[in-house]
Amino acid sequence: MKKGKIIVLSGPSGTGKGTVGKKLLEINHNLAYSISATTRAPRPNEQNGREYLFVAKAEFQTMIERGELLEWAGVYDNYYGTPLKEVERLLAAGKDVLLEIDTQGAQSIMKKDIGAVFIFLLPPSLVELEKRIRGRGTEEEAVIQKRLKAASAEINLGKDYNYLVINDTIDVAVEEILAIITAEHCKTANNLTILNNLLAKGD
Ligand code: 5GP
């Protein structure tokens, strides 16, 4: 069976990674969501093991020490990380694995050179980004200000990604990402074995 691909979806907070990610998972059934571990408190409607694995700081520290995380980062006073084992299991089962992570986490995966696909989600404008963060209504003003300040600096990091997708209309962004995933699977490097098998059979 062909191994799946890691699809890293990143971008500043409020660009709509969550909404876009959910739609991608609804449409593309070969795509599985990697549930991150976090030390932040659950928001209303969030369930342990569904949105995140909610863990204490000490437990998170242990996960780091045991090498159980593919990547991790401190984001806005909390820790977030991707449990490695589950990602490996899904990839081996031929699934593509969606990582909705912050830019620091994406950068650390870039350094690992593990053939992941990096997609950066851009907001159509900074005004729209602020609207989205405020519209979510889940953060206090101080947190909103922190996230907005980080966003401008983070946008610059998009230059290092394989793809830039503007999330103006969700459905268009989703369509574009689905196309990216399809194209990645058709890349020559991924299919040379098939080509060589055809040549070997000579038919
Ligand atoms: P939130 O607290 O709003 O759910 O997430 C805050 C930020 O942490 C978002 O940018 C989200 O993508 C990022 N994040 C979620 N899970 C992970 C993870 O496993 N690793 C990293 N590096 N960032 C994550």
**Biggest beta sheet summary:** 5 strands, parallel
Distance between the termini: 23 Å
Hetero groups in this structure are: guanosine-5'-monophosphate
Instruction: Give the strand order of the largest sheet, numbering strands 1, 2, ... along the chain.
Output: 2-7-1-8-9
Please state roughly what percent of the residues sit in beta strands, choosing from under 5%, 5-15%, 15-25%, 25-35%, 35-45% or over 45%: 15-25%
**Broad structural category:** alpha/beta
Gross morphology? globular
Kindly state the number of beta strands.
9
Explain what the structure shows.
The chain has 203 residues and is an alpha/beta fold. It is built from eight helices and nine strands. The protein has a five-stranded parallel sheet with strand order 2-7-1-8-9, with helices on both faces. Strands 4-3-6-5 form a four-stranded mixed sheet. A hairpin with a 2-residue loop joins strand 5 (69-75) and strand 6. The mean pLDDT is 94.
In short:
47% of the residues lie in helices and 21% in strands. It is an alpha/beta fold and 203 residues long.
Strands, helices and their partners?
Blueprint: E1 6-10, H1 17-27, E2 31-33, E3 36-38, E4 52-54, H2 57-65, E5 69-75, E6 78-83, H3 84-92, E7 96-100, H4 103-112, E8 117-122, H5 126-136, H6 141-155, E9 163-166, H7 170-186, H8 188-201
Parallel strand pairs: 1-7, 1-8, 2-7, 3-4, 8-9
Antiparallel strand pairs: 3-6, 5-6
Attribute tags:
single chain; 203 residues; alpha/beta; 8 helices; binds guanosine-5'-monophosphate
